[in-house]
Design a protein that fits this description.
- The chain is α/β, with parallel strands linked by helices.
- The chain contains nine helices and five strands.
- It has a five-stranded parallel beta sheet, with helices on both faces.
- The chain has a domain of 133 residues: Rossmann fold, CATH 3.40.50.300.
- Helix 1 packs across helix 8 and helix 5 runs antiparallel to helix 6.
- The radius of gyration is 16 Å and the shape is globular.
Length: 191
């Protein structure tokens, strides 16, 4: 990050299962930039606990401060916690309708409690809120990855990267879960 004022670092973040790993390489290729996954970087630095699989975010932030290129697409759900506001030019937050996300995570083999944790986080917009808090409303834009292909979502992210920063509308999944029955069904671990 080396203190550049006008960084060309593009951040992509979102709840696990929203498409970061599929979309980021397409975006990076389109923009002619390096593509860096935060989980991969944490692993290479030896910052992932063998026992829990958790990343030491504080140590990762310190390493990135020293080593991260200023012309790259960097992606991961940890982005708002390890990459400072001054380091990025734009941030795309990938969002996915919670029922669809639940199925994606189930197909990936996530354990039921982890599915519920991530679906709940997406429903209330935890990563999105943290990205907006860290990077601000003009640098941060949400992209709905519920339908369409990774290429379609990547095209939207490229457009964000190439456009002037501005405030954009926010996604609110809670509006579709306006009853206890809908919420219980969404957050149920039964298949």
């Amino acid at each position: 990050m080396r203190g550049a004022k006008d960084s060309e670092l593009l951040g992509i973040t979102g709840t696990p299962g929203t498409g970061k790993k599929s979309i980021a390489p397409i975006v990076a290729e389109s923009l002619g930039m390096q593509c860096l996954g935060l989980n991969d970087l944490a692993e290479s630095y030896g910052l992932v606990s063998r026992k829990s699989g958790a990343v030491d975010a504080q140590k990762l932030r310190a390493k990135l401060r020293r080593d991260l290129s200023e012309k790259a697409v960097v992606y991961g759900h940890l982005l708002p916690y390890v990459v400072p506001q001054s380091a990025v030019s734009r941030v795309a937050v990938l969002r996915c309708e919670p029922r669809v996300l639940k199925e994606r995570l189930r197909l990936r083999g996530y354990a039921p409690p982890k599915i519920v944790e991530n679906v709940e986080a997406e429903l209330i917009g935890v990563v999105s809120s943290d990205a907006f808090d860290t990077y601000g409303r003009t640098k941060t834009t949400e992209v709905d990855t519920t339908g369409g292909s990774p290429a379609d979502a990547a095209k939207a992210v490229v457009e964000i990267a190439l456009s002037k920063p501005r405030e954009a509308p926010r996604i609110d999944w809670t509006l579709g879960y306006d009853s206890g029955a809908k919420l219980r069904l969404l957050l149920s671990t039964a298949e």
